[in-house]
Amino acid sequence: MKYGEKEIQEFDINAKENFWPNEHEKNYTINIELPEFMCLCPRSGYPDFATLKLSYVPNKRVIELKALKLYINSFMYRHISHENSANEIYDTLYSKLEPRSMKLIADFNPRGNVHTVIEIDSTDSTKN
Fold first, then answer.
1. How much is the pLDDT for 126?
2. Is 41 a catalytic site residue?
3. Which residues, including other chains, have CB under 8 Å from residue 75's CB and lie 6 or more apart?
4. Which residue out of 41, 91, 121, 124 is catalytically annotated?
């Protein structure tokens, strides 16, 4: 196994070092684009690819970018639907960061003539 594969397989999003204190009291937005998200279709096993766009206004914590990359890459060999992967990523990051606000857009590449975009936004009252 190569060192990158090992690092992804052993990654734990819950490790304390993955989150840093936010040193700023003011509201500011962090926008992150992850253009190489991949997971596997739970029915066929074919790969699904997406661009994830994460936008959040931090409160007390920010996520370390390498940790975010490893977390997103940990979905690479998982059989999980578009909806479930987007919701799991959102819920995990929202619970760990406890941001002032957060939005995740999962824009999946078309497959079989179907294009799926999933948006989850903490300002939407139906979030929970």
1. 55
2. yes
3. 37, 38, 39, 85, 89
4. 41
